[in-house]
Amino acid sequence: MDKEELKRLKARVIELLKSTKIDGIDYFIEELEHTEYFTAPASAKGHLCYEGGLMVHSLNVYDAAMMLKKTFMAHRPDIYEKISDESIIITSLLHDMCKADLYYRRRNAQVGQAEYGFRDTDLPVGHGEKSIIRLFQMGLDLTDAEICAIRWHMGAWSVNQADSEQNKDFRLADKLYPLVTLIQLADTVAAKITERPATTI
């Protein structure tokens, strides 16, 4: 992806975040500029493993979430009218915030090796929790629905089935907040359909 395209996508992210008009959003965007959010890959060796991949994935999740909301609004307006566009922007663009400074580019990687490695972290909590903590540290207020959507954005993949309390929490969050289901679906659509590599049969 060339530098001009990265600049265009960055401008779109900033425009979307500003459109929420959330208190302190300008301060948050300044903080975001001090992270690697706009340049980090989405993964070390999987999907969108290139400069800007995290930002591309986040925008793909946003686009999928808005498409899903529009599609299902006609069938269940009672549910989807409860999901604000502002919450979709915040949760889709920032659900993977913990990845913003997670990767480093490997030097002298050999052919077939991952281009990126993982930085050690001293915060041994889950993927969704790290993103929420990071966002709070950066001064962003989140609603309960947004917290739950980010925490559980990987759906059942982030639930330890042997942990009955965690299982109960996930199911309750999913029941209380339709945003949780919407972001799970959008994340899956982005990663498994929009970003699916071209294959030959």
Provide a short characterization of the protein structure.
With 201 residues, the protein is mostly helical. Helices cover 55% and strands 3% of the residues.
Structure write-up:
- Helix 7 packs parallel to helix 9.
- The relative contact order is 0.14.
- Helices cover 55% and strands 3% of the residues.
- The chain has helices spanning 3-19, 25-33, 53-73, 77-80, 85-94, 127-137, 144-151, 164-176, 178-194; strands spanning 103-105, 116-118.
- The protein has 201 residues and is an all-alpha fold.
- It is globular, with a radius of gyration of 17 Å.
- The protein has one domain (3-194).
- It has a two-stranded antiparallel sheet.
- The two termini are 26 Å apart.
Cα-atom radius of gyration: 17 Å
Give the N-terminus to C-terminus distance in angstroms. 26 Å
Q: Could you name the ranges where pLDDT drops below 50 across 5 or more consecutive residues?
A: none
Q: Report the strand count.
A: 2
SS-derived structural category: mainly alpha
Task: Count up the helices.
Answer: 9
Indicate the proportion of strand residues. Answer: under 5%
Averaging pLDDT over every residue, what do you get? Answer: 87
Write the layout of secondary structure elements.
Elements: H1 3-19, H2 25-33, H3 53-73, H4 77-80, H5 85-94, E1 103-105, E2 116-118, H6 127-137, H7 144-151, H8 164-176, H9 178-194
Antiparallel strand pairs: 1-2
